[in-house]
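Database export, one record per block. Field names are fixed; values are copied verbatim from the stored entry.
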Amino acid sequence: MNGPQGGAAPSGAAVTAEGFGLKGPRGWAFRGVDIDAPAGSLVAVEGPSGSGRTCLLLALTGRMRPAEGAAEVAGFRLPKQMGAVRRVSALAHVPGVTDLDPALTVAEHLHERALLQRRFDGTLRGLLRPPAERTTEAKLRIDTALTAAGLDREALPKGSRTAVRDLERVEALRLSLALALVGRPRLIGVDDTDLKLSDAERTEVWDLLRAIADAGTTVVAVCSEAPRGAVVVSTAPVRTATPEEHSEEDSEATPEITTDTDKEAADALAEAGRA
């Protein structure tokens, strides 16, 4: 993902769509979606489980190929410029796509993400910079991302050495957001935003996502109930199906990738969406 250099904040991505739809092996995942969200918006994709919410999130971030209609993200058209949309967007908290390794520590996740960012986002000139300068840049990216995600490493049980398995649900979501924000994306997509959270935790998470949007990064968040003030995009099942079928559709519609900075993995995910 490309982003501003130094500590500059990214400019958000405007998101528009008209008659947007995606068809999978079992029929339409979603259809007839219209969006008009200015840069820096908090967009809530609202709907019941199995209504195509995750597929819409993946399509808007260039990870799945739509079947009809058109959309624009940061001026890049979908589906023609899916690669460009992937480079300006990031994903967080998407099951089967951005899963955290429960055995790794917070520090290990952040270190791995910084290395990937250096590999896939660096110019040749940047890669040839002195090691100390590259280390300083990586630390700045990590510290800025952690601050934006509201994750205080010192407040964790074992600080940065805390394993993911020992994080509370909201802490794990904050870490996933921080990892995505390291790349300074113009748009960040978040899945299952309010799943299994208490009312207080939902308020905490929505306040966090609104703050990220207010700081300049457009946020598209999947939820069961949209918060006040968000740009609401509703999805609904296009056909009647059993809960078991919806579960299978969600599984098939979310191919596995290890990181959204890996171009080959992202291309494989997009290829799966074409099937």
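Remark 1: The CA atoms of residues 62 and 81 lie 8 Å apart.
Remark 2: The chain has one domain: 15-274.
End of record.
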